[in-house]
Design a protein that fits this description.
Helices cover 18% and strands 33% of the residues. It is built from three helices and eight strands; from the N terminus they run βββββαββαβα. It has two domains: 42 residues, no CATH class; 82 residues, Alpha-Beta Plaits (2-Layer Sandwich), CATH 3.30.70. The N terminus is likely disordered. The two termini are 34 Å apart. By secondary structure, the chain is α+β, with helices and mostly antiparallel strands.
Length: 144
């Protein structure tokens, strides 16, 4: 369920948006000294992006699981009319066992369901975080 809340007047052009079930989920660029109206974190017609942090699980490693259906997940993800869609995966380096995946979905539960359905990285604990992409161009484009 989306949370609506008033955003305070900030001195910084950055505004954190918070959702109770996933923690800090996005950073939005606001003009300096601008006061945003009440807003809803979830909403609109666009699908959200979720960065999923996969960490090694403390669960029993001896458990029997079905094979990962990675090819089927990839095929389902390239269809533009499907939600959720797996977009990318990052593996940091040899000294970090975490894996990061990027998804497009209506909500975090869709991502969790897809991970379970396809057995994707099911030997790890997954934490989906709703994110928004922004960078220097967005900051510079914001009115002063």
């Amino acid at each position: 369920m989306p949370i609506s809340f008033p955003r305070p007047l900030l001195r910084s052009p950055l505004q954190l948006l918070v959702r109770a079930d996933v923690g800090v989920v996005a950073v939005a660029v606001l003009a300096r000294g601008t006061k945003a109206a009440n807003s809803c974190v979830e909403g609109g017609d666009e699908l959200a992006h979720y960065l999923v942090v996969h960490t090694p699980s403390e669960r029993d490693v001896e458990s029997v699981r079905s094979p990962t259906r990675l090819r089927e997940l990839a095929e389902a993800s390239i269809r533009n009319d499907q939600s959720p869609r797996w977009l990318k995966t990052w593996s940091p380096d040899l000294h970090d066992d975490r894996i990061f995946t990027l998804w497009e979905a209506d909500n975090a539960d869709e991502v969790r369901t897809a991970l379970a359905e396809f057995g994707f990285l099911d030997d790890m604990d997954a934490t989906p975080l709703r994110v928004r992409e922004w960078g220097p161009d967005d900051v510079l484009a914001a009115p002063e």
